[in-house]
Amino acid sequence: MKRLVTIAMISLLFLGCKSEPKRTDFIINGTAKDVYNGVRAYLKVKQQNGRARVIDTAIVVNEKFTFTGNVLNPTFSLIAINSVNGELDFMLENNQIDININKSDIKQSTIIGSESHADYKIYRDNILELVKETKRLKMQLRNRKIRDSISKLHKIAEKKQQEAPINFIDTHRDSYYSLTLMEQEISKNNADIEAYLKAFNNLDSDIKSSTKGNAIKINLEKSLADYLKTAQIEIGKVAPNFEAPNLDGKMVSLNDVKGKVTIIDFWAAWCGPCRRENPNVVRIYNKYHDQGLEIIGVSLDGTRNQKDPKNAWLNAIKKDELTWTHVSNLQYFQDPVAQLYNINAIPATFILDEKGKIVAKNLRGRALELKVQELLK
What we know:
Layout: H1 2-17, E1 26-32, E2 40-46, E3 52-59, E4 64-69, E5 75-81, E6 88-92, E7 96-101, E8 110-112, H2 115-140, H3 147-171, H4 176-185, H5 193-201, H6 205-208, H7 211-231, E9 243-245, E10 251-253, H8 254-257, E11 261-267, H9 272-288, E12 293-299, H10 309-320, E13 325-327, H11 336-340, E14 348-352, E15 358-361, H12 365-376
Parallel strand pairs: 1-7, 11-12, 12-13
Antiparallel strand pairs: 1-4, 2-3, 2-5, 5-6, 7-8, 9-10, 11-14, 14-15
């Protein structure tokens, strides 16, 4: 008998501790004090292009309105109400969300029931404080007497502001708002993609495996690949070595050709601007070759419009009197060398110093000659 009672008590305890099933829909209960009957309220979601799309409309009745629906993942959203200035931004998720609209300042409205919104508010309040502090210190920089001491504090404040997004994500690995924040930040031109990919990999597994998580991972990996393509050919980097067939089909590498100054010239027989620039390049080569200037021409001939790409390439070299080293795979913009150097338009040039470092790009005319002169001296 005692055993049966014990089993029953354990069963009741288990049932009592069982978590409620996760909601698969949302209901927004809005209160809009002093907003007249019949006024429309709009629920919008932010799209990847930054624009907001209306997904539901409600009518205010007795100072109340309701939205219902569902979202795959917590989503950055907006509420707008006719006759109320501005919009209320918040994180929409599948839950009961109670919103009390502040008619005089909609951004001061209260939102209860969205965990991801609570995280968004923590981040927003923190970043606003950091921005405020940075501006305050910037104003003090006008005072010459304290400029030196304030300058250090201003740099520290700026750094904190720049690092705020990644720091938030690292300390909120179980938050869906971390995904939203990451999505916003990686779209910026100066985003540290490697740092954000590392932060993404540290997120909780259910966050990473969500629909939005999978989309962001794909975006991050693509952005990292694009970044690595351009990072290795930035000014100051050693130019990547390559190997391609010369006029006789023999493999020639960049390292075989390098001089005191080296120009990598991407061009093609069909490229009008390239051919018009060739006389200038010929003049510079003839003038400075004996002093250490070398050129390697990489042809992007091989377009479908060419009946005989190799013959067109050879004829252009002969006609334009291009007496330096030439290589080509005759694969148009699919040429491996062109892809290595992320070439999407020609003419394109890379100027290297005697150590093989890229010191300039895409110089023409007098500017090209002046840079060659400078490096040779």
